[in-house]
Design a protein that fits this description.
The chain has about 475 residues and is of the alpha/beta class. It has ten helices and 24 strands. Helix 8 runs parallel beside helix 10. The chain is elongated, with a radius of gyration of 24 Å. The mean pLDDT is about 95.
Length: about 475
């Protein structure tokens, strides 16, 4: 019997370094599995430029998983290499897959400065050069003296990058492209060309870079036994790189390696074009759906719920959609801050967890809270919805998106999951009642709201329909429950 898949992003941006996240996961693994989690997206596990304070998106040494004294620490923010491997083993024993976060767009925290000829560019128009070429001091030499060549003797220099955002010689911040280099064309068109994002920008046209990344990824998979990847910032990286990279790593490791990319764009046409361009087995996070949920939560009841799924990956390509309500980029204080309002979180999570489309991802910051921003945990709510996904959300789906303030859907259930099947009602304004079909197999059965919001039970008629209802600005999830 195959249960519904459910991913959890197991970190948030502002979490403390103690206790070590890897130790927390080791203790949590069995409980997470019981709650319905089937996979975990873990944060970048390698040494970052800020040492123990680094969340992981300023990668310094990909081979240092918390093993070498570099950047003032042996461990990473999340723990040591041993703790990391122990946490993965605990997840696997519980029956949970683990996805590693790959941040390959750039490197930070170089060991030495190199003198490089470069041209300065307009940060808002990467095709507009500002002034003449000049020699700058670029932090581009990575020698990893703390690791001393263990696992790989590959070192990085300016030839492996195409640009940087800091001139050490003149103490100036700008966008610099190294002379003789070209921005990659197969990237997002924001700022004219969005190849450059931050730090020392990787030159993906360099064959040595490609071969080193493949070698590292194979080592990483073999060392940790992870089951897949989350790819960071793919809009800044040529689709052809990940097309070839994923093919090679899967070939060399012999593993399927589920992969989901982060292409941060609100236009579903842009991200579906990327899926076609990558020509590889990969999914993408449904950013357009996140924005629909966010805008609905900010609309104060004036959002047309009939359109909540419009122009989303969940609608256009559900097999490739990893759906989410919020993540570390959207939480308060982050560059893409767009945190779904508290009142709408139950409805938003019902949409991603209880429908047939998409592979949902629950956010650690919602599940366990974000103490830094005084955001309380929603564990009790999410455990309830996650359990409903695990036990009830199966079978044929029927949609009733016929009212701007009140929508609903039903799932008929299947034989493999006893007593499965449910009906969901969501309101962002006035409540309401809908006669919805849930299946003739339920004729005469009684249903109650598992969320505890609707107070009165209903009975399914001989046609397999019930008059399901929801209160104002609320969610109701109706499941079979016969009176005692």
């Amino acid at each position: 019997m195959l249960d519904n898949g459910l991913m959890m992003q197991y970190f948030e941006w502002n979490m403390e370094s103690e206790p070590a996240l890897w130790d927390i996961l080791k203790k949590d693994a069995d409980k997470l599995k019981k709650s319905g989690v089937t996979s975990l997206w873990l944060p970048p596990a390698y040494k970052g430029a800020e040492g123990i304070k680094d969340v992981g998106y300023a990668p310094y040494d990909l081979y240092d998983l918390g093993e070498f004294n570099q950047k003032g620490t042996v461990r990473t923010k999340y723990g040591t290499k041993k703790q990391y491997l122990d946490a993965i083993e605990a997840a696997h024993k519980a029956g949970i897959n683990v996805y590693g976060d790959l941040v390959l767009n750039h490197k930070m925290g170089a060991d030495e400065v190199e003198e490089v000829t470069a041209e300065e560019f307009n940060s808002s128009n990467r095709y507009q050069m500002v002034g003449e070429g000049k020699t700058i001091g670029a932090w581009t030499k990575f020698t990893f003296p703390g690791r001393k060549g263990k696992y790989s003797d590959f070192t990085w220099n300016w030839n492996h990058f195409d640009g940087i955002d800091w001139d050490q010689d003149h103490f100036k911040k700008s966008v610099y492209k190294f002379s003789g280099k070209q921005w990659s064309e197969d990237v997002d068109r924001e700022n004219g060309n969005f190849d450059y994002l931050m730090g020392a920008d990787i030159d993906f046209n360099n064959r040595d870079v490609f071969e080193e990344f493949v070698k590292w990824a194979v080592w990483y998979v073999d060392t940790t036994d992870i089951d897949g990847f989350r790819l960071d910032a793919v809009k800044h990286i040529p689709a052809s790189f990940y097309r070839d990279f994923l093919y090679k790593v899967r070939e060399y490791t012999g593993k399927e390696l589920f992969t989901v990319g982060e292409y941060w764009h609100g236009d579903v046409r842009v991200i579906t074009d990327y899926l076609e361009a990558i020509k590889s087995e990969a999914s993408l996070f449904d950013v357009p759906l996140h924005y629909n949920l966010y805008h609905c939560s900010k609309a104060g009841g004036s959002y047309d719920l009939r359109t909540i799924l419009d122009n989303t990956l969940m609608q256009k390509n559900p097999i490739k959609a990893v759906t989410f309500v919020d993540n570390h980029d959207t939480q308060p204080g982050q560059p893409m801050e767009s945190f779904v309002e508290e009142w709408f979180k139950p409805m938003a999570y019902a949409i991603i967890l209880l429908r047939k489309e998409g592979y949902p991802c629950v956010f650690y910051g919602d599940y366990k809270g974000i103490p830094y921003n005084k955001i309380k945990a929603k564990k009790q709510l999410l455990d309830k919805l996650m359990k409903l996904r695990k036990t009830k959300a199966y079978g044929v789906q029927h949609d009733y998106f016929d009212d701007p303030d009140c929508i609903g859907w039903t799932r008929e259930g299947d034989r493999a999951h006893k007593d499965s099947g449910l009906a969901v009602m969501i309101s962002d304004g006035k409540g309401g009642t809908k006669r919805m079909y849930i299946g003739k197999q339920f004729a005469g059965a009684h249903f109650s709201d598992a969320m505890g919001n609707a107070k009165y039970n209903i009975k399914i008629d001989n046609d397999g329909c019930g008059n399901f209802y929801v209160n104002r600005g609320d969610v109701a999830v109706w499941v079979r429950k016969e009176p005692k």
